[in-house]
Structures are given as C-alpha cells and as structure tokens.
Write a structure and sequence with these properties.
With 320 residues, the protein is of the alpha/beta class. The protein has helices at 26-39, 74-84, 95-105, 107-114, 130-143, 167-174, 206-219, 227-234, 242-245, 263-278, 296-299, 304-319; strands at 63-68, 90-94, 119-123, 149-153, 182-187, 225-226, 252-257, 283-287.
Length: 320
C-alpha cells in the first residue's frame, strides 16, 4: 500500500512545463507560478527594476490547497509538485488511500511511517466523513512540525454560479486545527475532459459492444460484466482494494447499465470510476448512458460534487 503512494501512471510525466494554462482563466497561470515556487521551497520573487534588486516574497506556508472545479488540471499540478520537489521521501495518494492505510496499520504506526517525510500530496481531499477528516487533520498536524510539506486538492463544480464556491472555506473549517498551515490557491476554468466530446457517454448496442470487446481482446485484456453484477461485487471489496480489480485490464466492458438508486452503491461506484480513470482504462457499455447512472435525487444531494466528477470521468473513458 505504501509502495503505491505515487502519482497515477497517466501523470508519470506530469510537469509544470506540460501544464497548459488556459489564457481565458488567468488563475491557472497564477497557480502554476505559485506552485512552481512552492516546489522549490518558497514564493516567487518580485521582479527588480533597472537599478534595484528584486525583493524576495515571503515564504509560502507549509501546505497548499488547490481549490477549483474538476477538469482544470489540479491533479496534473499536484503531480508536478511531486515530481519537481527535490525530496528524499515523498508520497502521493488519494484521500481514501491515506485513510485506508491508517485503517490497516493503525494511527500511531502511520504517524511513525510518515514522520520525517518531506512531502505529502493528497488528491481529492474528502469532507463528507467527519471521522476520516479529523483523522487526517490530526495526522497532518503531527507531521507539519517535523518539516513535512503538504499539497492537497478537492473539487467544486465548474462554472456553478455560486454553488460550491466555498469549498476552500469548507476545507479550512473542517481542518480547523491545520487551517493556518495551508495557502489556498484558486483555479478557475472549464472541464478539459468535455472540450472535445459532446457531454454524453457513448452507449453501444449489443453488436457494437461485442465487436468492441473482441477488438480489445485481440490486443489486450478486456473484462465483460453485467453492470448489476459489478455493483454487487464492489460491496464485497474495500474501496482501497478496487485498484486490484482492474490490474491488467486494457478495457472495461459493462452490459445493461441502469440507474443507481442506493447511495452506498453509488459511492462505491464513484470510487471504482476514480481508479479506472487513474489507470486510463477505456469503458465500453450498453444500456443507460453512464452519464445518467446517478438518480436525480442523488445529484441534488450532499454528494453532488462526487457524482459530477464521476460523470465527467465516465464520459471521457467511454470516448477514449
């Protein structure tokens, strides 16, 4: 589990140079500049004039929090920090991976494991479970005084006209004991995953589905499962182990996709989608479009951000 705390394969080559800031959203370039400086241990220096020295800006706080909608490149920037920081011991994982580690090792052993680490990157910091949030807050609170630097991301819906715009405040409130250690960096923009597609997941008929899996099997390994069978199986596996379910797969096949009615099942499916997206495994499906898999009342509830992110990722995977 510890060995897996590195950026997902799709971000193996992520760097600040390969992050393409959208000129329409200046906050993207500003975030890139700030995080480049953070990875070097400080804040950007002010430019000097002809006859004066450039003044060095105050050093940044030990933690940065990237606040913005999904699909604006936060994970790319987080992986760029990981790759750019000249650290002897550094870790990169999702919130659920860190909390699963605490569950497996126990709190004190996890503290001992990370004590002395130079950098912890936490992708998709979750605020829904107060218990897990407080465990992570306590863990980070023990590490920062020993010199560990922190970088975290979370999600708000893009262009939501006020909805979710207080994610930064929510984050700082929930980790109140650590809030003074984090610099909030806002990143605006549109979901890059939707720029080249029509916003709907691709749905195949039975013949096209069979042909797609036949083609996939010819060059790799494809799974072929009934959607309800997958949902039942996910309930028997801890989410931290979902990565094992997709190891070695080149294509995921899902038959007879249907709308999810159970919140717990939907959240497990979100966690599965996150792992499939991290591994960039294409999805081929029949039945209901995967962008419609979450019931309307779910999209109107407290986990709306999670479901919207999953829909964005599912759309992209069915088009890949």
């Amino acid at each position: 589990m510890v060995a897996a705390l590195v950026p997902p394969p799709q971000f193996d080559g992520a760097s600040f140079e390969t992050y393409r800031a959208d000129p329409a959203y200046p906050s993207q370039q500003e975030a890139k500049d700030l995080l480049t400086a953070f990875s070097r241990g400080g804040a950007p220096a002010e430019r000097g004039g002809l006859f004066r020295r450039a003044k060095r800006a105050p050093e940044m706080k030990p933690g940065v929090y990237l606040d913005g909608g999904f699909g604006v490149g936060k994970t790319h920037l987080l992986a760029s920090i990981y790759h750019a920081m000249p650290a002897r011991r550094k870790y990169f994982g999702s919130f659920i991976e860190y909390t699963a580690l605490v569950g497996a090792l126990g709190y004190q052993k996890t503290v001992e494991l990370f004590r002395g680490a130079d950098l912890l990157c936490i992708d998709e910091f979750e605020l829904d479970d107060p218990g897990d949030t407080m465990v992570m807050t306590r863990l980070l609170g023990e590490l920062v005084p020993t010199g560990t630097r922190l970088a975290a991301t979370s999600n708000t819906p893009p262009n939501a006209l006020g909805e979710g715009r207080f994610a930064a405040q929510d984050f700082l409130r929930e980790i109140h004991a650590m809030s003074a250690s984090f610099e909030t960096i806002r990143i605006d923009g549109t979901d890059y995953r939707q720029r080249a597609i029509d916003g709907h997941a691709v749905v195949l008929d039975d013949a096209a589905y069979t042909q797609a899996l036949t083609d996939a099997d010819a060059s790799g390994t494809a799974s072929d499962d009934a959607f309800d069978g997958l949902i039942r199986h996910l309930a028997s596996v801890h989410p931290s182990r979902y990565i094992r379910l997709i190891e070695g797969l080149d294509t995921i096949g899902l038959r007879d996709v249907a709308e999810l009615q159970d919140q717990s099942a939907a959240l497990r499916f979100v966690a599965f989608v996150d792992r499939a997206y991290d591994a960039q495994i294409p999805v081929r499906a029949t039945g209901l479009g995967l962008n419609e898999v979450f019931a309307p009342e779910m999209l109107a509830g407290g986990y709306r951000k999670k479901y919207l992110r999953a829909i964005s990722r599912l759309n992209a995977l069915t088009h890949s």
